[in-house]
Amino acid sequence: MMFTVGSGRVVYGAGTPFEGLGLNLHSNTELLLSNGIIGLCGQTGSGKSTFLSLLAGEHRHSGIEVKLDGQMPMPPAVGSVFQQPEDQLFCASVREELLFAPRNFKMAEPDDLALIEILTKLGFKDCGTFLDRDPLLLSGGEKRRIALASILCFKPSVLLLDEPFAGVDPLTMRILISSLLLLAQSGVGIVYSGHEVFEMSLICSEILCFSEQAIVNRGSPVEISQWLCQFTGDDIFLDWRVDDLERRKMIGRRACIPHDLI
Questions:
Q1: Which of 155, 174, 205 is the last residue of a domain?
Q2: What is the dihedral of CA 151, 156, 159, 164, to 10 degrees?
Q3: DSSP labels, 156-225
């Protein structure tokens, strides 16, 4: 699978006193999803979320052409997990939340056993009773996992996640990272944004670097190690080589990452 994104600008509030540049793509961009997870890295407000929303098929007014294998990206082929789970959750129970998308897309409705299987893979316990909980009364980490589960229920080919690890505890982060890696291994294309640079450098095959609403660098974590060093101010990334396994272990000790991935 491959995203192709044309050049152009996304402007918010055009023609109003609040007009502001959201993204400026100076050239065409291709994202090959079959190579592994793709990360979007950069400071807050640098254009990562706008780029993700472009991949989801939004901002068509911008004139930027976005294709996924030659077709316009849209659900259910593409699933998006929002930066704020409260913006995504709205049903009265976890069960209804998980069933909303399959019903909306007129797909086969998963039974409780299938829902419990999804919740179990995301680290939930007592899933049978959990299905009756109010999603808006859950903890922040639980809301993030339910938001992801609600997307997984319609089995998208591509998963777009906006800061999926923000504000979660180390155990939850490890659960989420393991889940994303398993999904990628099963053939699901994954693009996500985040500020957890140590984790991103270990789980992503490619990272796109954003600054001032533009892509300023891209490559494997090793290829952009100099940029990572400058961005984090941490010389642990300096002169990182592919065969430097000891360096990978050092980065892993600073990351919330399953130990078998270090």
A1: 155
A2: 20
A3: -SEEEEESTTTT--HHHHHHHHHHHHHHHHTT-EEEEE-S-HHHHHHH-SEEEEEETTEEEEEE-TTTTH
**166 and 60 belong to one structural domain:** yes
The DSSP output letter for 187 is: T
With CA atoms as reference, report the closest residue to 49 among 105, 17, 87: 87
Q: What is the pLDDT of residues 14-31, one digit of tens each?
A: 889 999 999 999 999 999
Coil, strand, or helix at residue 68?
Answer: strand
Torsion of CA 142, 148, 152, 158, to 10 degrees: -160
Domain boundary pick from 125, 155, 185: 155
In this model, does residue 52 exceed pLDDT 70? Answer: yes
Task: Please choose, from the candidates 86, 90, 94, the residue with its C-alpha nearest in 3D space to the C-alpha of residue 130.
Answer: 94
Sheet with 29-32, strands from edge to edge, namely 29-32, 2-5, 66-68
Mean pLDDT for the chain? Answer: 93
Q: Are residues 56 and 171 in the same domain?
A: yes
User: Which residues does residue 51 pair with via DSSP β-bridges, in sequence order?
Assistant: none
**pLDDT per position as a tens digit, 154-186:** 999 999 999 999 988 888 899 999 999 999 999
Overall pTM surpassing 0.90 (yes/no): yes
Residue ranges making up the domain that contains 40: 1-77+161-262
Residues whose CB falls within 8 Å of the CB of residue 49, separated by 6 or more in sequence, listed in order: 83, 162, 193
Instruction: For residues 128 and 235, state if they share a domain.
Output: no
54-103 confidence digits (pLDDT tens) = 999 999 888 899 999 999 999 999 999 999 999 999 999 999 999 999 99
Q: Are residues 211 and 131 in the same domain?
A: no
